[in-house]
Amino acid sequence: MALNYAKTAETILDKVGGEKNVSGLTHCMTRLRFVLKDSAIPKDAEVEKIPGVIRVIRQGGQYQVVIGNEVSNVYKELLKLGHFEESTGSSEGGSKENLFSRLSGFIAGCMTPLLPAMLGCGMIKVVLTLLTTFSLIDKTGSTYVILNAAGDAFFYYMPILLAMTTAKRLGSNIYLAMVVAALMIHPDITALLLKGNTTYFGLPVTAATYSSSVLPVLLIVPLMGYVERFADKVCPSLVKVFLKPLLVIFITIPIALIVVGPIGSILGNYLASGINLLYSKAGWLAIMILSAGMPFIVMTGMHYALIPIALTGLTNMGFDAILIITMFCSNLAQGGASLAVAVRTKDKDARSTASASGVSAIIAGVTEPAMYGVTLKYKTPMIAAVIGAGVAGLYAGIMHLVAYSMGGSPSGLSLIQMIGGTGFGNLLNGVVTLAISLVVSFVMTLVLYKPEVKEETPEEIVEAPVQEKRTLVDTIELASPLSGDIIPLSQVEDAVFAGGVLGEGLAIIPSEGKVYAPADGIISAVVDSKHAVGITTDTGVEILIHVGLDTVQLGGEGFTLHCKAGDKVKKGSLLLEFDMDKIKEAGFPVTTPVLVSNMVNFVSLKTTDKKQVKTGETLLTIV
């Protein structure tokens, strides 16, 4: 059944609130991009039921309706229905996303690829905690040492792994970023900084510990990107291969150790002083505020600044009423919120991640999987966790809950550390605090978290015509249109491409800014923003080459087209040039998906096994 473009356009416009709610409209190769005055009006599930609509995405302040190859036809019909200004800005009256949304999106995007390793090590810590709690292994034995190292491995070396994902997200050299992060946690550097009075070419270096920290890497890698681009411009081509990395590392070292890295330590010192002052004046308020804010303190690594306070309390008074208690409230709240997400979501992968993260936080006190993989990612569960932790902290502060010993990361099993004093009153308060933290965060998440669920009504689903599979005598080979590193679609940081919504294929992180025709054919589509090209080959394969992610927002800046719709091209013809530095400087990844959008006409597609490819080499084989 052919798509009725006019009807689809009319229905979409109605569902997004009509012309009066649209302050801007444009389109890219596959999506309609609305800028809405009130983005709360459209109901995603209803829009996704419209014939021709593949998916709805709220991203970058835009309401994006994924149509696929027919998007230009639907766009033309929309222009007939109203007078729309082209815009790539944000919704809500043209304002950009708030700082928290952008920051949390960036952090979650950098942390999400690390989830498998994070969850695995977190669950090792859970197992180890259970084994030691029930005296099933000896803490002095080799088994304990090995399991403990396995559980700590990810968290200790997290700055190196995070440097890799951050650099990849920003389009910087991941190996240089990893070297800078490795320097910051190198045992010799750690020992040197702990001695104090450290200098670098006469400049003072603040004593700090960077293992397990997040903020220093998230700050230094973007700055390293600017250093990298500077080095690329000033280095002569003849010596660039070794001079560029030398300059990047040499210049970034003092920035990391003297400027950026110590920020967390300096803020931590001020935090510790403020906490002592606040606790002496209003202990209950201090515990409540710290419990609520602990996720963000842990995120920056500043919770290490509280350890001396805890040790001082345990040594001088025999108990700690600050660090262990506030982390106890916060960690349990993260667990409760994650479990609530597992209950609410319909996505199997999200449920699995949330369940494991919740168990890890509650039993072992390892909250990174919950924070970066669940609560911060979906935003409202983080709000619920903050509320739950704050309420639990308020109760703990009023009842003067304390811990009489320091063990691993505070968790549900930390109730053991609350046995002491006179009678079991303190332990009872610990149990109540645990219950408050879990229940409040769980219930608040159920209230606030609205999982995106695509509801389908059978009678409204328009089935695509079934086309006969083509039986081929010979296979069809498509050449690579770019040179660069190959990654699977599943690793592309865009749900539409990663989910295979627009077709099968792979993605290339280009090493040069040129796109060539992968086969003989006709240019079937180009867009005004020049960042994508569609080709229909002489063998009937429909190919989409999409340079960068969300690069439509550049409005064609940095792109030069060498073809137009309807042109006949030969394999190897130059189709498009793009300025990689300009795209990266604008904050967009240069990752380029190469897709076959009409695989329904064929039997199977095989991608090359190579990790790197050069222009003209076989990239895809179709049967």
Automatic annotation (TrEMBL):
<keyword id="KW-0813">Transport</keyword>
<feature type="transmembrane region" description="Helical">
    <location>
        <begin position="427"/>
        <end position="449"/>
    </location>
</feature>
<feature type="transmembrane region" description="Helical">
    <location>
        <begin position="382"/>
        <end position="407"/>
    </location>
</feature>
<feature type="transmembrane region" description="Helical">
    <location>
        <begin position="319"/>
        <end position="342"/>
    </location>
</feature>
<feature type="domain" description="PTS EIIC type-1">
    <location>
        <begin position="105"/>
        <end position="460"/>
    </location>
</feature>
<feature type="domain" description="PTS EIIA type-1">
    <location>
        <begin position="494"/>
        <end position="598"/>
    </location>
</feature>
<protein>
    <submittedName>
        <fullName>PTS transporter subunit EIIC</fullName>
    </submittedName>
</protein>
<dbReference type="InterPro" id="IPR001996">
    <property type="entry name" value="PTS_IIB_1"/>
</dbReference>
<dbReference type="InterPro" id="IPR036878">
    <property type="entry name" value="Glu_permease_IIB"/>
</dbReference>
<feature type="transmembrane region" description="Helical">
    <location>
        <begin position="246"/>
        <end position="272"/>
    </location>
</feature>
<keyword id="KW-0812">Transmembrane</keyword>
<dbReference type="InterPro" id="IPR050558">
    <property type="entry name" value="PTS_Sugar-Specific_Components"/>
</dbReference>
<feature type="active site" description="Phosphocysteine intermediate; for EIIB activity">
    <location>
        <position position="28"/>
    </location>
</feature>
<keyword id="KW-0762">Sugar transport</keyword>
<dbReference type="InterPro" id="IPR013013">
    <property type="entry name" value="PTS_EIIC_1"/>
</dbReference>
<keyword id="KW-0808">Transferase</keyword>
<feature type="transmembrane region" description="Helical">
    <location>
        <begin position="284"/>
        <end position="307"/>
    </location>
</feature>
<keyword id="KW-1133">Transmembrane helix</keyword>
<dbReference type="Pfam" id="PF00367">
    <property type="entry name" value="PTS_EIIB"/>
</dbReference>
<keyword id="KW-0418">Kinase</keyword>
<keyword id="KW-0472">Membrane</keyword>
<dbReference type="Pfam" id="PF02378">
    <property type="entry name" value="PTS_EIIC"/>
</dbReference>
<feature type="transmembrane region" description="Helical">
    <location>
        <begin position="106"/>
        <end position="131"/>
    </location>
</feature>
<feature type="transmembrane region" description="Helical">
    <location>
        <begin position="174"/>
        <end position="194"/>
    </location>
</feature>
<dbReference type="Pfam" id="PF00358">
    <property type="entry name" value="PTS_EIIA_1"/>
</dbReference>
<feature type="domain" description="PTS EIIB type-1">
    <location>
        <begin position="6"/>
        <end position="88"/>
    </location>
</feature>
<dbReference type="InterPro" id="IPR011297">
    <property type="entry name" value="PTS_IIABC_b_glu"/>
</dbReference>
<dbReference type="InterPro" id="IPR018113">
    <property type="entry name" value="PTrfase_EIIB_Cys"/>
</dbReference>
<feature type="transmembrane region" description="Helical">
    <location>
        <begin position="200"/>
        <end position="225"/>
    </location>
</feature>
<dbReference type="InterPro" id="IPR003352">
    <property type="entry name" value="PTS_EIIC"/>
</dbReference>
<dbReference type="InterPro" id="IPR011055">
    <property type="entry name" value="Dup_hybrid_motif"/>
</dbReference>
<feature type="transmembrane region" description="Helical">
    <location>
        <begin position="143"/>
        <end position="162"/>
    </location>
</feature>
<keyword id="KW-1003">Cell membrane</keyword>
<dbReference type="InterPro" id="IPR001127">
    <property type="entry name" value="PTS_EIIA_1_perm"/>
</dbReference>
<keyword id="KW-0598">Phosphotransferase system</keyword>
